[in-house]
Amino acid sequence: MKNKSSVVAAFTPEAVLKRKVRAHLRKLGFDKSSDGSLCPPSSSKETVRSLHSDQRKTGLKAHRAFISNTFPRLKKYLAEGNDIDPAKLLPELELIEAETWQSELFRLASLSWSVPVSNGFGRRLRYLVWDRGNDKLMGIIAIGDPVFNLKARDDLFAWTVKDRGKRLVNILDAYVLGAVPPYNMLLGGKLVSCLVRSREVRDDFKERYGDTRGIISRKKKKAQLVVVTTSSSLGRSSVYNRLKLGKQEYFRSIGFTQGWGHFHVPDALFTELRDYLRKRKHKYVDGHGFGEGPNWRLRTIRAAFDALGFKADLLKHGIGREIFVCELAHNAGRILRGEAVRANYQGLQSVAEIGLLARDRWIIPRALRRPEFRDWTHDHFKALLAAKQRLEQAAENTVAFQPNKRTTG
Question: Phi and psi dihedrals of 49, rounded to 5?
Answer without folding.
Answer: -60, -40
